């Protein structure tokens, strides 16, 4: 006699897609929204430049600007509890013409387009956008060394038409052919393409390294001659701590 506990169940007579018909669809997540309780600035915000800091080195670079005095608005993700301060994407006014969006929370890929749409809508209308993200090793076609800081760029069509001297990130080479970018950075660049905005996406490696902080400083400083107040000794506080033995030999 068969053991009903240990014997495998017989195959279903229904196809896998038919079984899904009996499962109620999950409720759609509410859309992210922008909240501006911190200042009395009149909407929409129209900066000359919107910088979106996603990578850890870029957040470290702008750390001195991230305070309650510069906070202008917050992008709320309704599915995350507000009890944690890093669960919002905060918009800071770091000069009279430049806004900075600090993305401290990890963004799931299935929410990237919703966040990009909420960030670049009628409430924020920049003339140009710079996105600072990291290279994901599995998406890069080539060798990545943990001992060498590298950065590349991708551009929207509106930015690519500009002359070399007018580029947002003129000192960078283009991301190697065959490599890809995904996640929030790619979603924001795609949104800029739809809106016909000038936009440049910078992806850097390693994820955690003082040399990347200094590299980004040299790239961003010409845009508005920022005074980051950051020297090499201070950048070393944000030194290599996770990528010290990693090298990518993966080709796609």
TrEMBL record:
PANTHER family: OS01G0219000 PROTEIN. This is Uncharacterized protein. It comes from the Eukaryota.
